[in-house]
């Protein structure tokens, strides 16, 4: 790269690093209170979602002992659905930080005090017991799609700079090549959300191989036993330690449809905001 190339690239790289560092600090602030979970028990409190999750944190009203307070917390849509359905959340409060989780999930979110905005009347709660799982599956898929959309935006920016000679074309080619490799690696996980006409949810007994938890998306493999006596190999393409822990507790999971080798399905649990993309394969003899 020439000196002019670096004069455009370095400010951009510096800005992205600064944004990433700020986000990491903001995310880690409430995580410093996680050790309190070993000494402070979870307390059930009345909860109501005032503002659903989106670009901004959700607003949740917590009521305990007749006193109400509002916290801003990053929740997935499945977790918000469970709060709306049960009217309850589990909390541990440390200073100004509120650690929060919902029924059916061991995932912890951190909340901070917030000023309540206009109360929004939510639509009637869906009575389907697997709605929370499907909402979580869509969230997992979106967590993969967002970086890909940002990748496309970066391509457009690089192409604009290259078009006017502001950056070397080889930089653009390298960025495109690296992005294509990332897209190829993420493609199997893009099929987390499947068409709604896959049939009834089916229970399968499962035994998982040892797996390692990851902060972004955890993968695992194992074996499943079907009601008709068949045994299939299963690959969990995109999930969370929360889902895998629930599999260990329950001894299996539910699948949206009838499991068949070579197909990818959404897996989940009733009344729980946990989900995974699973793919079955035949047992090799």
- Helix percent reads 25-40%
Overall geometry: globular
Helix and strand succession? Answer: HEEEHEEEHHEEEHEEE
**Distance N terminus to C terminus?**
54 Å
Please report the number of helical segments. 5
| Unreliable residue runs | none
The count of β-strands is 12
β-strand percent reads 25-35%
Mean pLDDT value: 78
Query: Nearest-angstrom radius of gyration?
Result: 22 Å
**Taking strands numbered 1, 2, ... along the chain, how are they ordered across the largest sheet?**
1-2-3-6-5-4
How many structural domains does the protein architecture include? 2
- Biggest sheet overview: 6 strands, antiparallel, barrel
Which structural class do the helices and strands define? alpha+beta
Give an overview in words.
With 285 residues, this protein is of the alpha+beta class. The chain folds into two domains: 41-113; 129-285, no CATH class. Helix content is 35%, strand content 29%. The chain is built from five helices and twelve strands. A hairpin with a 6-residue loop joins strand 1 (43-51) and strand 2 (58-64). Helix 2 (77-86) runs antiparallel to helix 3 (131-163) and helix 3 (131-163) packs antiparallel against helix 4. It is globular and about 65 Å long. The N and C termini lie far apart (54 Å). The mean pLDDT is 78.
């Amino acid at each position: 790269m020439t000196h002019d190339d670096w004069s455009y690239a370095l400010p951009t790289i510096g800005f992205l690093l600064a944004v990433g560092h700020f986000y990491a600090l903001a995310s880690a602030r409430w995580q410093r209170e996680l050790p309190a979970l070993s000494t402070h028990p979870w307390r059930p409190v009345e909860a109501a979602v005032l503002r659903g999750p989106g670009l901004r944190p959700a607003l949740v009203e917590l009521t305990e002992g007749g006193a109400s307070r509002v916290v801003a917390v990053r929740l997935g849509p499945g977790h918000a659905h469970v709060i709306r359905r049960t009217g309850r959340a589990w909390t541990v409060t440390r200073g100004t930080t509120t650690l929060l989780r919902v029924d059916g999930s061991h995932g912890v979110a951190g909340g901070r005090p917030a000023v309540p905005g206009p109360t929004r009347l939510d639509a009637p709660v869906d009575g389907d017991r697997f709605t929370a799982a499907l909402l979580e599956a869509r969230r997992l898929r979106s967590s993969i799609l967002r970086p890909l959309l940002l990748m496309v935006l970066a391509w457009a920016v690089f192409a604009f700079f290259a078009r006017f000679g502001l950056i070397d074309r080889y930089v653009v080619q390298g960025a495109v090549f690296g992005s294509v490799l990332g897209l190829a690696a993420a493609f199997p996980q893009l099929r987390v959300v499947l068409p709604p006409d896959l049939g009834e949810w089916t229970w399968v007994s499962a035994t998982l191989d040892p797996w390692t938890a990851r902060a972004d998306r955890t993968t695992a493999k194992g074996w499943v036993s079907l009601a008709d006596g068949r045994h299939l190999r299963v690959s969990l393409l995109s999930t969370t330690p929360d889902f895998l822990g629930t599999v260990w507790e329950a001894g299996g999971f539910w699948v949206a449809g009838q499991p068949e080798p070579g197909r990818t399905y959404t897996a989940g649990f009733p009344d729980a905001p946990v989900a995974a993309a699973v793919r079955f394969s035949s047992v090799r003899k």
